[in-house]
Amino acid sequence: MIIVTKPEATEEQVQHIIDRILEWGLKAEVSRGALRTVIGVIGSEDVIREKPLTAIPGVESATPVLKPYKLVAREFRGGNASHVKIGDVTVGGPNVVIMSGPCSVESSEQIGSIAKIIGASGAKILRGGAFKPRTSPYSFQGLGVEGLRLLAEARKESGLPVITEIMDTKDLEAVEQYADCLQVGARNMQNFSLLKEVGRSRLPVMLKRGMSATIKDLLMSAEYILSEGNFNVLLCERGIRTFETYTRNTLDLNAVPVLKAETHLPVIVDPTHGIGLREHVLPMALAAVAAGADGIMVEVHNSPELAKSDGEQALLPDEFADLVVRLRKVAEAVGRSV
Fold it and tell me: Whole-model pTM?
């Protein structure tokens, strides 16, 4: 249920509304606007329907959220977009945030040098995998906790906050110790036990769309995280499987405007995994910004031919620098900045 207060509602009346909601055993999520306050009421729908919400002083309207995803729905924030902070970086505002780094953390020298390179070119967040989900059990699986330590060292040297993947609930405490943002990968998008655990985390979460997931599937998975109390969630379009086999996946840029209309959560696009071919990453990244993405995630490696994973899709440092210059121009054209 969404409560909208009257324009003249006082702070005391708003607090009274919140207190009454809590007295009924429900939860309240508050979003304050310039003229009105929007309060999302969370709890049993049967209980909510029984309560005389519009009789509370200061309430202008109370509207049920009819979509199956309640907390992620744009209506829940009164039509306003959410901003998510990763370290000191805000995602979801006027700036398009660039996240970059190698697929896998391989060594201190490798992750440290790449962090400095991408930071100098304009990246705001460092990505790198310490735990790697691979199709083959014989492929490089990541350095684990040692990889997390190396990411933390690179953050200290470069000043870039760190996002890295969480694959298993048993690793959450370790990842929380070293990272600034948790990434739930495509293969774990519907790992509901993991979603519930990261929903209780103090860190923001980026949820990647599953390879065969619909937009509704993605939003329902995000609902699991928010329902546990963590509203600092980013959604990531990273390509889906279709009948096309020339590229690694099909980057579904349709999802960007649709998600922006359906949810208040920021939307990130990962063209690296979306297409899987280095030479096509740049145009798809530009198209993603034009479509309205709040952030871009691309892989960069200073020696892709020696990379332990996904070297064929990683940009070289000079290619990344060129991409950032072009992204700034597209962002400016659509009224944003990089």
Answer: 0.90
